[in-house]
Amino acid sequence: MGFQKLLAYQKGYLLAMEIFEVSQRFPREERYSLADQIRKSSRFVCANIAEAYRKRRYPKQFISKLTDADAENSETQVWLHFSQDCGYITLLENKGLLKQSMEVGKLIEFMMRNPEKFGSEGLPTATAN
What span, in angstroms and rounded, lies between the C-alpha atoms of 22 and 35? Predict the structure, then answer.
């Protein structure tokens, strides 16, 4: 199984793509600030999940990368609030995107609490000869 099969990755990816779509409507002056920030943080959720999966043979590193994914997810929520308060997305859009983000957060939290379910302890580790 690859990281693309992880539910947290799949839902995070869909969220990042939805954020990309809505952020295309942001005004030009936000191109290099809010739009870039929210796109970056939402994409980094997925990137960190992928990195965590590749480090799953080392439980502490696995959890550390998932912690990074969780932090990026929280940052995305902050940018969503700014986006609504600046009038770039509607309250309804914000609620829907935040709901998705919270679901991704719960999945990441589950992975952190249960690393063994993701192959974290069952893989052979490299040995020095």
Answer: 9
Tell me the per-residue pLDDT of 61-98, one tens digit each, with 9 for 90 and over. 999 999 999 999 999 999 999 999 999 999 999 999 99
68 contact partners, CB below 8 Å, separation of at least 6? 44, 48, 51
Does residue 64 lie within any of the structural domains?
yes
Inside any domain, residue 125: no
Residue 45, domain member (yes or no)? yes
Let me know if residue 12 belongs to a domain.
Answer: yes
With vertex at residue 65, the alpha carbon angle to CA 53 and CA 56, rounded to the nearest 5 degrees, is 30
pTM surpassing 0.85? yes
